[in-house]
Design goal:
Helices cover 30% and strands 30% of the residues. It has 105 residues and is α/β, with parallel strands linked by helices. It has a 6-stranded mixed β-sheet, with helices on both faces. Helix 2 links the parallel strand 3 and strand 4. The longest helix has 15 residues. It is globular, with a radius of gyration of 13 Å.
Length: 105
Amino acid sequence: MFENLIIVELLKFRFNEGKRPKVYFWRDKSGHEIDCIYETAQQLLPIEIKFSKSLSMDHFKSLTYFQKLSQQPGGILCYVGDTEKNQNNVSVVNWKHLLKTLQVI
């Protein structure tokens, strides 16, 4: 349900800007998946959504895999914790700040 909340907020954000949604789910045949691929004019931005207050290296596995596959750095790990930082070419953000983070991209 938390993932759905975030996806709906992303869709509303795009619609309110007068833009097409361009929000996708991605999964390959090996089971690697990204909760949300957010398309910008410059890139496909992977977003992992975790209903967790703490960070784990496991949270970064799908993002790291997608970065290698797409040969594009970056990504967002959206979670319910308070610590916000950059780690492994990923912006770690609290879910309440996700839309503000996307505004500067």
